[in-house]
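Support reply, case 0932

Customer input (verbatim):
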Amino acid sequence: MNKRLVLIAVLIALSLSCSNKGVLSIEAGVVYKMGGMQPVARVTFHLLDDDLENILQKAGYTGDKGSDVVTRYAIASQFPDQNQPFYGQAKIVIQSHIVQSVTTDFSGKAQFEGVPSGRYYIMGVTETRGGFAFWNLRVDVKPGKNSVVLDQNNAVMAL
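Our regenerated output:
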């Protein structure tokens, strides 16, 4: 009888500890005026525990030539050889703030699974026909299923 009560208590504790977690589904695409929506396929997105701007500013980084620090990082991500040591050092700083990383499938979809409830930021970058799109999008994950569509309209920068 005591073993049964212990097992029930363990199962209850496990269900309570899992109940505050969610799944965050993303669907990423770029909508072009001519040619429609193109999925952002085979691209890695990171779920950060803080806003990229806060992360970089706390590390002592600032914007460059009239732009903010996120724009500076976004541009540096496209031209890493020209932006050393900033880009390399910033990547190291960001690494400790990555909660999870996922890579989209060929239809631009991916899921962050088992995410504790809370506020996060989705960071990712993809090439576009005219340049690139860079995301640093705030998301609030609640228990259960959550979803967000990433496109050029909610990107920090889309060229």
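We compared this against your earlier run and they match. Two observations from our side: The chain has one domain: 22-158. The chain has four helices and nine strands. Please reopen the case if you see a mismatch on your end.
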